[in-house]
């Protein structure tokens, strides 16, 4: 009922459990640590099991566990994050370095900002001493209006030998902001974890609280949530296409993609009062009713027609296609092992989508075409997103057609010491919120698993042994955010 | 083969003439800072201050102090207020030169602006270096939108530049995370004089939601000298344009004492 089937495990049984899960076709989604009131630290592994709506949750007590990263590589970053922030030791970890915090950060966590020393610590780069290999550190402040992150390239001429992104310059401690807050008001925090994923974050958070409170959201609110989530997908993917054209130097294509994004944002603002779909959701439903009159359906249809013409033109632009086809291929095996999610994994042949596999809001009642491709290159990633925009337009129109009047909000107060798991298919992939309510009815622990955290982990595998000219295109084809990853 | 050039020419002009009078600013329906009307405020009611996540509204000497520099536009106060003293509005053009202008006040006299003679030479050509010091990427999304065909920042002689060495204005978003503190300072140090700093978004102005926790500072206050403040969560592209033009003395400042039209 709360989205989870809790299964306590001994630390010594972890490896066997992981093996059994993978043999059954399941996948670990994420892991986190928390300290229940009055007892020691507990590590939780959240797993998707085939044909099961709820997620299995393995709970393992203790601060010193065997690392699962050697058998489930995607857990590598989650374990390092727990080591940084909760001081949990994982024995046998293949990359035992800090991830979220810089070297020595954890010991200075309460120090003041101004006394803080330079943070260009050791990035654990491989020692490459061949004379011809050059090292290029790039960032954290880079050209153009982009988010902060540092990338290191080892290269010979045009050829990239090895690449390592260094993220978490933007780590804001967002999960800690939830602690002690009222569950209804904290949706404002969830909305500010990743700006361009505002609605998905608010939705996953609200779902988690609603599952903890065992409350049922009224149908009108469920339907409007789908509409809003798909509008978010539309403007994000339009931006993605415009930005991808920027990297392939297709100037008019870039302008058109970004103009369509702007039109989508203006439609959204007219409907909701916010270009980023903020201040709309609350646990139990919506904060206020929306009146999507006929103008919205007409506006979306006009936008769809422009979008279709835009896609036709992109598909006929050889210079654009030449740069995408065979660029940055991500094999299905690596995508699965490293935890790639959303359009990225679907472009590599993995047929997974939370909206269909673990339906939430009103998705179970709506026709949803999940598009997958096998190639796994930049072009496949572009085409999967194009198809998703099409599908989103159809979903929006369907919701508008079927929308019935009715209440939009119900009481939702999670009882003390309850817990819930919420999820949403963000434009960039699977997003999870795990919430724990304290004895006072306020939030005790909130864990956010963002899609970009997963996809950043997989991305470098498409960069090693490629060339510099393709890098920007490949990065754009992943459509990653850094705020969501760093939190 | 796609004929992009022909398509572009046939599509005509997509750019708004805004801020020319009467032109479309593109912000139809966009909610801004809640408008405070003390006359409607009920004595003893503290609902708005209790729900405000960033303490933009505080109880002070029996009354309210409202600091729009801390407002994240979450609208919780407008929903909590029983009497309409906190009212939803479309007031988003909140760019100001002086931080005190963001605090609600009855006194709406103009603060003496800093000497602007230096700035005159930059009125028709301003180069901006943007630094993300830990934003949620909402501000970046709107900054990127400035270069879309609708706003077309270039038409106003304002450009983003890759290197701080070419920049006149350092535009900062985010609450300044611990890890971005030094890179931000280095970017500022690398700029030639005269140089100015703009805080975009409530995080950069005062820290926003995560401000002051273990990972974040509280915006640019005390980190860099700020010449231009623009709160908002995030400020929309027209608000950013308006603030930049105001900074260049090409349009008047709209907010004084926390109120539009002061």
Low confidence ranges of chain B: none
Stated plainly, the CATH topology of the largest domain in chain B is called Rossmann fold
Return the CATH architecture of the largest domain in chain B.
3-Layer(aba) Sandwich
Give the SSE order of chain B as H and E letters.
HEHEEHEEHEEHEHEHEE
Count of the separate structural domains of chain B: 2
Radius of gyration of chain A: 22 Å
How many helices of chain B does DSSP assign? 7
Shape of chain B: globular
Tell me the name of the CATH class of the largest domain in chain B.
Answer: Alpha Beta
Mean pLDDT across the residues of chain B is 89
Q: What is the CATH topology of the largest domain in chain A?
A: Cytochrome-c3 Hydrogenase, chain B
Helix amount of chain B, in percent? 10-25%
Question: Strands of the largest sheet of chain A, in order across it?
Answer: 1-4-3-2
Characterize the structure shown.
The complex is a heterodimer of chains A (487) and B (262). By secondary structure, chain A is of the alpha+beta class. Helices cover 39% and strands 17% of the residues of chain A. Chain A has 2 domains: 4-100, NADH:ubiquinone oxidoreductase Nqo5 subunit (Beta Polymerase, domain 2), CATH 3.30.460; 174-486, Orthogonal Bundle (Cytochrome-c3 Hydrogenase, chain B). Chain A contains 16 helices and 14 strands. In chain A, the strands form 5 sheets. Chain A has a 4-stranded mixed sheet. In chain A, strands 7-8-9 form a 3-stranded antiparallel sheet, with no helix packed on it. In chain A, strands 12-13-14 form a 3-stranded antiparallel sheet. The model of chain A is unreliable at 104-121 (pLDDT under 50). Chain B is α/β, with parallel strands linked by helices. Chain B folds into 2 domains: 33-92, Alpha-Beta Plaits; 117-260, Rossmann fold. Chain B has helices at 4-11, 47-51, 76-80, 138-145, 178-189, 202-206, 237-247, and strands at residues 33-36, 57-60, 63-66, 86-91, 126-132, 158-160, 169-173, 196-200, 228-230, 255-256, 259-260. In chain B, strands 6-5-7-8-9 form a 5-stranded parallel sheet. Chain B has a two-stranded antiparallel sheet with strand order 1-4. In chain B, strands 2-3 form a two-stranded antiparallel sheet. In chain B, a hairpin with a 2-residue loop joins β10 and β11 (259-260). The chains are: A alpha+beta (487), B alpha/beta (262). The interface between A and B is large, with 73 and 72 residues.
């Amino acid at each position: 009922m709360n989205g989870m089937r809790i299964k306590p495990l001994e630390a010594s049984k972890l490896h066997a459990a992981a093996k059994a899960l993978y043999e059954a076709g399941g996948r670990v989604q994420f892991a986190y640590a928390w300290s229940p009131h009055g007892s020691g630290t507990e590590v939780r592994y959240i797993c998707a099991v085939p044909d099961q709506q709820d997620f299995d949750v393995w709970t393992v007590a203790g601060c010193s566990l065997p690392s699962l990263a050697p058998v489930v590589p995607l857990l590598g970053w989650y374990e390092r994050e727990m080591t940084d922030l909760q001081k949990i030791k994982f024995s046998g970890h293949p990359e035992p370095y800090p991830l979220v915090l810089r070297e020595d950060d954890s010991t200075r966590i309460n120090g003041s900002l101004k006394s803080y020393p330079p943070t260009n610590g050791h990035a654990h780069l491989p020692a490459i001493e061949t004379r011809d290999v050059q090292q290029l550190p790039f960032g954290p402040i880079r050209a153009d209006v982009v988010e902060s992150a540092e990338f290191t390239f080892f290269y010979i001429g045009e050829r990239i030998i090895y690449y390592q992104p260094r993220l978490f310059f933007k780590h804001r401690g967002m999960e800690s902001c939830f602690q002690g807050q009222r569950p209804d008001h904290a949706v404002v925090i969830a909305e500010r974890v990743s700006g361009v994923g505002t609605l998905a974050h608010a939705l996953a958070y609200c779902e988690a609280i609603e599952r903890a409170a065992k409350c049922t959201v009224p149908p009108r609110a469920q339907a409007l949530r789908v509409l809003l989530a798909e509008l978010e997908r539309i403007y994000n993917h339009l931006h993605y296409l415009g930005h991808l054209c920027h990297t392939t130097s297709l100037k008019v294509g870039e302008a058109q993609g970004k103009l369509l994004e702007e039109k989508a944002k203006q439609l959204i603002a007219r409907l909701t009062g916010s270009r980023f779909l903020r201040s709309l959701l609350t646990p139990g439903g919506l904060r206020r009713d929306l009146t999507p009159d006929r103008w919205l359906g007409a506006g979306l249809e006009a936008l769809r027609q422009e979008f279709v013409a835009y896609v036709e033109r992109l598909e006929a632009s050889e210079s654009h296609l030449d740069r995408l086809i065979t660029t940055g291929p991500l094999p299905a095996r690596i995508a699965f092992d490293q935890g790639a999610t959303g359009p990225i994994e679907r472009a590599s042949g993995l047929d997974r989508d939370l909206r269909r596999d673990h339906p939430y809001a009103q998705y179970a009642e709506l026709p949803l075409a999940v598009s997958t491709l096998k190639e796994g290159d930049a072009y496949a990633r572009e085409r999967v997103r194009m198809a998703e925009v099409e599908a989103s337009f159809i979903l929006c129109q369907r919701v508008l057609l079927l929308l019935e009047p009715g209440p939009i909000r119900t009481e939702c107060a999670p009882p003390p010491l309850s817990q819930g798991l919420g999820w949403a298919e963000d434009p960039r992939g699977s997003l999870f919120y795990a919430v724990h309510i304290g004895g006072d009815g306020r939030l005790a622990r909130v864990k956010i698993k963002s899609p970009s955290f997963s996809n950043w982990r997989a991305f470098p595998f498409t960069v090693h042994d490629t060339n510099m000219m393709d890098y920007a295109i490949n990065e754009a084809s992943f459509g990653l955010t850094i705020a969501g990853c760093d939190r | 083969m796609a004929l992009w050039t022909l398509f572009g020419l046939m599509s005509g002009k997509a750019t708004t003439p805004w801020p020319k009078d009467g032109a479309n600013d593109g912000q139809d329906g966009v909610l801004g800072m809640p408008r405070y009307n003390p006359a409607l405020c009920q004595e003893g009611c503290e609902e708005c201050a209790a729900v405000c996540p960033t303490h933009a509204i505080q109880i002070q000497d029996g009354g309210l102090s409202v600091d729009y520099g801390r407002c994240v536009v979450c609208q919780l106060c407008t929903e909590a207020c029983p009497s309409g003293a906190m009212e939803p509005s479309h007031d988003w053009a909140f760019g100001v030169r002086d931080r005190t202008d963001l605090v609600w006040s009855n006194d709406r006299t103009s603060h003496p602006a800093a000497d602007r003679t230096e700035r005159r030479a930059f009125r028709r050509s301003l180069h901006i270096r943007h630094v993300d010091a830990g934003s949620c990427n909402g501000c970046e999304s709107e900054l990127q939108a400035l270069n879309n065909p609708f706003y077309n920042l270039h038409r106003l002689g304002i450009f983003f530049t890759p290197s701080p060495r070419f920049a006149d204005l350092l535009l900062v978003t985010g609450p300044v995370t611990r890890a971005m503190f030094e890179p931000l300072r280095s970017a500022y140090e690398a700029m030639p004089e005269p140089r100015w700093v703009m805080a975009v978004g409530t995080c950069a102005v005062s820290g926003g939601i995560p401000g002051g926790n273990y990972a974040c500072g509280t915006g640019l206050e005390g980190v860099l000298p700020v010449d231009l403040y623009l709160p908002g969560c995030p400020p929309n592209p027209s608000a950013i344009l308006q603030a930049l033009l105001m900074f260049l003395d090409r349009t008047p400042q709209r907010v004084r004492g926390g109120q539009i039209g002061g």
